[in-house]
Amino acid sequence: MHNLGKFSKEEYLAAQIEASKRKFRFCKVSTRCVARFKEVIYKSSGGNIRGPILCLGTRNGRELDIFRNLFFGGRLKAILMRLSEKEQYAFSSRFPWLESMGMSDVAKIDERSVVGVEINPDGRRKDVRICSFDEMPKEREGKFNIVYSNTLDHAYAPEIAAKEWYRVLAPGGYMVLGFPGEPVKVTTANPSGDLTFQQIKSFFPGKLIYYNKYGNCFADAIIKKS
Ligand SMILES: C[S@@+](CC[C@H](N)C(=O)[O-])C[C@H]1O[C@@H](n2cnc3c(N)ncnc32)[C@H](O)[C@@H]1O
């Protein structure tokens, strides 16, 4: 397995939480990139976009607000998201309280839910489950029609994490990924940064329907699970 044995899982989790706390104000996902994901999925599904949506490694949770408002919030909310976004190193909102209105509930997941998983306890919200994304509850198998993550480079053992993410994605669902465009240095905070796109693709068998090496902060890809 990729990084097993390089450092312990405890060291890894402590490093993830420390880095997440340090950068807590920022979200690397932008309204513009989620709007692009929606366009691609809309086209691929013949206009039949379905949730629920699961986001993995959500830090302060803003990406959940972006996905929920853009996918299920209607045109006005999408415009509001765009107008309230500011970019400074990463992305944040001028009106976080406005964006988070209508938040989903992890205890009541339906077709329009957008929920997350995060290891940093500071990331707790009504729509976020605090746990490691490589150990998802058994009953979540095949539950989500869209799974998003820009954190595979943060996985302790990416083969195991990817298997879990695909397990909870429904057949025919969309795996949406953000990842470093070029392999980066391996550290406890970035233990799988050296993965190549070929390796990443091999973890998620299916049809590659979108690839953009120059997304807003990462390269982006969407794979339709067969
Ligand atoms: C690079 S940040 C990305 C945060 C967010 N997706 C964004 O775009 O701003 C990685 C996040 O993943 C979380 N994370 C790392 N390893 C995790 C794990 N095993 N399980 C759940 N969350 C994890 C970290 O705590 C951190 O908040």
Query: Architecture in CATH?
Result: 3-Layer(aba) Sandwich
Fraction of helical residues: 25-40%
Could you give the order of strands across the largest sheet?
5-4-1-6-7-9-8
User: Which CATH C-level class is it?
Assistant: Alpha Beta
CATH topology: Rossmann fold
Spell out which ligands are present.
S-adenosylmethionine
Q: Which homologous superfamily in CATH is the superfamily?
A: Vaccinia Virus protein VP39
H/E element sequence: HHEHHEEHEEEHEHEE
Class derived from helix and strand content = alpha/beta
What oligomeric state is this?
single chain
Provide the number of structural domains: 1
How many angstroms does the end-to-end distance come to? 25 Å
Q: Roughly how many Å is the radius of gyration?
A: 16 Å
How much strand? 15-25%
* Uncertain ranges: none
Shape: globular
- Mean pLDDT over all positions: 94
How many individual helices? Answer: 7
Major sheet description:
7 strands, mixed
Write the layout of secondary structure elements.
Layout (H helix, E strand, L loop, with lengths): L8 H14 L8 H14 L8 E4 L5 H11 L1 H11 E4 L1 E4 L2 H4 L14 E5 L9 E3 L13 E6 L8 H11 E11 L17 H7 L2 E7 L6 E7 L1
Parallel strand pairs: 1-4, 1-6, 4-5, 6-7
Antiparallel strand pairs: 2-3, 7-9, 8-9
Helix pairs in contact: 2-3, 3-4
Bound molecules: S-adenosylmethionine.
The site of S-adenosylmethionine has 21 residues, from helix 1 and strand 4.
